[in-house]
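Consider a protein example.
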Amino acid sequence: MPRITVFIVAAFALVLATAGASAQSVEDFYRGRTVSLIMGTGPGGSYDLYGRLIAQHLPRFIPGNPNIVVEHMPGAGGATAGNYIFGPAPQDGSKILLAHALPLIEKLQPQGIRFDSRKFKWLGAYDQISQVLAIWSTAPGTTISDLKARDLVLGTMGRSHLSYQWAAMLKEALDGKFRLISGYPTGGDLNLAMERGEISGWVIAWENLIGGNASWLKEKKVVIPVVFTLSRMPELPDVPTLIELSQGEAREIAGFLAAGTPHARALALGPNVPEDRARALRAAFDAMVRDPAFLEDATRRSLAISPRTAQDVQALTEKITGASPAFVDKVKAAVGATD
């Protein structure tokens, strides 16, 4: 067979295969399939708690009712998982990202970032991450005054992770004397280090406490002197926010960081996932976060649900990624995110 004929036949076969794939319905694609929920941290923390809740309930609302499994891909404060979903992951809707604060990571720690947060196909956010400073009750100090004056040690994950950035911002705002030790792989490792007395405390997700370590609160094993939210938490009405403790430019920076917290409780697809599958998954997500059985199960697991739509998450993405270089430089300096 002449070479040109072989080429034409091969090209025609490719066109037919592509047409067949595009003609496949969303329901046909997902029926009998296993979908992976990819999270950028290891087992044992708040992401794991939410991930298993979502993996149990989301399949009921996806056409074809696929099975969903949780996969852990820790590294770079969630950026490793973000890079994977954006690039080498199959762009067919079989991989869903349980996101970290990726727009903030992209702006503050761009080294090694191979994603554009604006181009993720966001499904929505199921809550906003509420992080608090938990200090072990037997640490050398547990108050704001102690953080200003004593040589306490706070543990963190990587420098691109909110556990580090919030702690660094707190140190800047208070002119604190405490030290930061980064590099712990997961929240579970930090919890263990705090229990052992290796660190005084760390910036932990509220759900990590109430979902996995509720006894710490009940038995007063931890003290919470500050929270990192836009406003005071209803569960901790007497505990000030970092925004309250900050002045001037530091207050503006704290507000910028807090605006990124919904992304740390969001779901996203890669940029080239077919739009019909993205629409179906957005609709499934919206239905799940309104579903009484899902909400009841979340309450039973002590997991807060305060959803935002895909459009809301996209708007926040645009706001963060659109910050001026001069302001971003100020934020980087405040949170220790050096280039």
In short: DSSP finds 16 helices and twelve strands in the chain. The first helix runs from residue 3 to 23. The chain has a mean pLDDT of 90.
